[in-house]
Amino acid sequence: MAATTILLVLVLVLAATAASAADLSVYHNVHPPSPSPLESIIALARADDARLLFLSSKAAASPGVTSAPVASGQAPPSYVVRAGLGTPVQQTLLALDTSADATWAHCAPCDTCPAGSRFIPASSSSYAALPCTSDWCPLFQGQPCPANQAASLALPACAFSKPFADASFQASLGSDTLRLGKDAIANFAFGCVGAVTGPTTNLPKQGLLGLGRGPMSLLSQTGSRYNGVFSYCLPSYKSYYFSGSLRLGAAGQPRNVRYTPLLSNPHRPSLYYVNVTGLSVGRTWVKVPAGAFAFDANTGAGTVIDSGTVITRWTAPVYAALREEFRRQVGAPSGYTSLGAFDTCFNTDEVAAGGAPAVTLHMDGGVDLTLPMENTLIHSSATPLACLAMAEAPQNVNSVVNVVANLQQQNVRVVVDVAGSRVGFAREPCN
């Protein structure tokens, strides 16, 4: 009887532990997708240059600066999660961004924000405006308190303004209860956007969830709740009906994960750098120049795992070697054409079925991430055409950072363990 009781207690404890992780659905924010996957990807990738400019920016590399910009010159990430803010809860869709720290939402009143639902602070009994003296204010790069502030007057709210894509926004810092799945996170600090200057086309429609590793991020603010662990599985762009998942916390993460060490860039602490040691096409290692993948915190060089960039970009010497080997193995009789960001498109009628080789990313720790064919080759539904779904990093935007983007991460569970300084990968159907 005692043994049965102990076993029952253990089962209940394990069940409670497993339930402690928040599991949220992840949706693509472009509906409906193009009938042609190739056309859809090309359209989405047009915004990548702004994103790459943000990821490769050295603006934060000045002495003493230890946090990346709150907002950036990036286009909105392609995936969103459903979250709740306030009491009573107000539902919102937040763009999932692994390279940003701060969470922010469009708040009412805001005549210049994108059309759509907005968070109403006045309707939340748990909302609090954070003053200019708040410890959070300098982290959000907020304006300092007035030098001649009278002691008898209420302190002004922490205000900040940031660029985003081809616009900028003005926001005030506040805190409220953030609800993710069944979890309620009290006193969560976030930006409340009250005005936008410039076009709003590339702004997230309702807000953004910062999943970076810096001091303002969800991971930092939740501390022991999630222990610095989360994972995501991104669904393909191909289907109208799909959702992936965002899993917060160590519980419920897959066991068949292969981990590679995370690298830290003190000038850009939000970004998830990994050490790529090589690429292979089929069974052939790509011959890249020595040091082509080397990590350098001063220049920002290295390889970043990013959920917001659409197609993977390799620096010029790496991509040139990859493209040469890929073309050699495909051997398209009529040669190759360019389409949008892709420069290795070929007539599939001229290539034997299964003629396109797999591309594998090799990383420290013996991690070999072989990309599924749908993550390597994008087909047109209208013509017998397919393209290598990677590209060279634009020289006028980014000449040093390799970015492993969301198209290559689809149907792969990416597990980020900041406390353990590692990131892992496991094949998983997310659709």
Automatic annotation (TrEMBL):
Gene3D superfamilies assigned to the protein according to its UniProt record, in alphabetical order:
Acid Proteases
The active site annotation covers D97, D306
Q: Which residues form the signal peptide?
A: 1-21
Q: Tell me the keywords, alphabetical order.
A: Aspartyl protease, Disulfide bond, Glycoprotein, Hydrolase, Protease, Signal
Gene Ontology BP term (one): proteolysis
Q: Which family does it belong to?
A: Belongs to the peptidase A1 family.
Protein name per Swiss-Prot or TrEMBL: Peptidase A1 domain-containing protein
Lineage, uppermost ranks: Eukaryota, Viridiplantae, Streptophyta, Embryophyta, Tracheophyta
